[in-house]
Structure formats: C-alpha cells, structure tokens
Predict the structure.
Amino acid sequence: MARPLIGVSTYLESGARWGVWELEAALLPVGYPRLVQRAGGLAAMLPPDDPQQAAGAVARLDGLVIAGGPDVEPVRYGAEREPRTGPPAPERDAWELALIDAALAAGVPLLGICRGMQLLNVALGGTLVQHLDGHAEVVGVFGGHPVKPVPGTLYAGIVPEETSVPTYHHQAVDRLGEGLVPSAYAADGTVEALELPTPGWVLGVQWHPEMGDDVRVMRALVEAATPR
C-alpha cells in the first residue's frame, strides 16, 4: 500500500546559506519530514504560494501539517502589534490560512504545530496572547514541560497520560476559535492542544513533536490520512 502523502508548509527566508550560496529559500527543519516518515507517511513541502491555489494543493494530499515559525500578524485576529511580537510573515500567513480553510472544507486530516495551532485558532475567529513568559526560556534552545490531556478528547485518545514535550513559543491561544475545544493544558493553564470535534481529524499542538522521540501524534495523523 502506498504511504499517504502529507503536505508540510515551509518557511520562506532570505539569506539562507548552503555551500557557496546565500539565497532566498523555501526551507523546513528536517525534523518535520523525518517525523512524517517515521510515522509512515510521505512528506511533501508546501512553500508559500498564491492562496487561490490552496484548495487545489490540498486536494492532492492525504493529510496536511502547518509547521511552526514566526508570529502570526496581529491584524489577522483584529489586534494591534505589541512591542515583543516578531516581524510579520504575510506570505506565510495568507498561504497557510488558505491551506487550513481548504483542509477544513475538504475534510483533509489537519495537524497544526506551534504557529500552526495558533493559525488554526485564528482561522476560526480566535485570538492570541502576544507574549507569554516561561515557554521559551533560552533563545534558540528548545525547552520542555509537561502537558496534561483533557479526558475524552481526540488528543487524550492518542496520548492518554501526562507527558513532557519539547517547547519553544512566546505566544499562545487566548479566545478560542469557533468550535474549537482545548485538549491539553500546561501547568500554568496555557492551552497546549486544541481540536475541532467534527467527523474529520483536526488537531493543533503548541509544542514541537518533530524535536522529540514521541511519534504518536504524527502517527495518528498519518493513520487518519491513510486511504481506506
């Protein structure tokens, strides 16, 4: 049986360097495709494109991952930029929001990771806390803390126990988007996972599973994306 095709959104960065080259690049930390592969899927990179192409792209996929990355532009959720909010990434925001909308409309299994979870919340009308202390303690270094699943949720069915997760974020979900429910919390009450209880498979996690050894969340996405 062919492995399900899992699309993963990418960064778009200027000044990326490899060999003798320093060029603008669409790139993705290798942890993402490796996690998809370890979970039994085939990874395909989805660099920013015309948002009108999102539905056609999603139609070719079995599953979708919206990757981590820069802060969501506050105008997307009706807020003014606060001083500690990072530079905008308008091309990524537009493309990834269109991908999310297309996946929800088509019933394609969807996993949001860190920024991807925040964008899922914004796509459904939710808002974000623009700065949160204690979840990215050392610049450029992933930390870790426990998250506790909410019984009866999709996430709790995948990971039923409290577990320590790799984390690096300074923003978080504030008001939940329409239909979304929390499915895991950090000890300080931060929503660490959310989901959309529909006949489809829609989950967001605030941490970075691609930086750890636990493949259960990605494996659940791949299983949901496997054609029956």
